[in-house]
Amino acid sequence: MARRTAVVQAFQFDPESDPDGEEVEEVENQRLQQDVSEWCHCGKCATMPTEVENICCLEIPQVTTRLREVEEQLPCMVDHPGLEPVCLNVYSLQNASQIYRADYGPLQFREIHRRYRYLSCRSFVSWCWGFLGRRIRVVIPACVVLRIRSEFPDEEGHYVGFKPPPV
User: Fold this and answer.
1) pTM higher than 0.90, yes or no?
2) Angular region, 46: left φ>0, alpha ψ -120 to 50, beta rest
3) How far apart are CA 103 and CA 96, in angstroms?
4) Cα distance between residue 89 and residue 48, in whole Å
5) Mind listing the pLDDT tens digit for each residue in 121-167?
6) Extents of the domains making up the chain
């Protein structure tokens, strides 16, 4: 019996890019110029440093799926009763740190709040999107990022925003 193997065609379904890049640049800068009330639908977002980070929880299907799990209609993901135990609870984050350590080695962050912010973001992504795979990254809604930063603040106010995956 002969085996058939599927041929994988990379980027087969990716949209073609604008050769001049003008249209893309225009859209990217649009949210930086807009007032937060023009793109935030939950009322708890704030303008973030980059355009890609200016996204509301109610714009992301994976996040709104989590919001619909709760019987009462919630206005924002930061109001979800699961956010605290999954992403903000120090004991859950300590456990996430041990799992991370077993899979990837120790975290390189000395400062505890930075470590907790990193683990909180990973926990949120895992909770809403599941396993994404290596070098696949998603943007966390501005309201959730602000909630994580308020729980685990940086004394000097230095935060790392969204980083696209390495090429």
Assistant:
1) no
2) beta
3) 11
4) 24
5) 999 999 999 988 878 899 999 999 999 999 999 988 889 888 888 87
6) 34-151
Say yes or no to pLDDT of 19 above 70: no
Q: What's the confidence (pLDDT) of residue 167?
A: 76
Measure the CA–CA gap between 93 and 39, rounded to whole angstroms: 31
Quote the Cα angle for 89-91-94, to 5°. 110
Task: Count the residues in the chain.
Answer: 167
Q: Average pLDDT over the chain, rounded to whole?
A: 84
Q: What one-character DSSP code corresponds to residue 52? A: G
Distances (CA, A) of 137 to 74, 109, 129, 155, 158: 26, 20, 10, 27, 21
Residue 133 has a CB neighbour count (10 Å cut-off) of 5
- Quote the DSSP letter at residue 8: P
- Confidence (pLDDT) at 24: 46
DSSP label of 84: I
d(CA 159, CA 149): 8
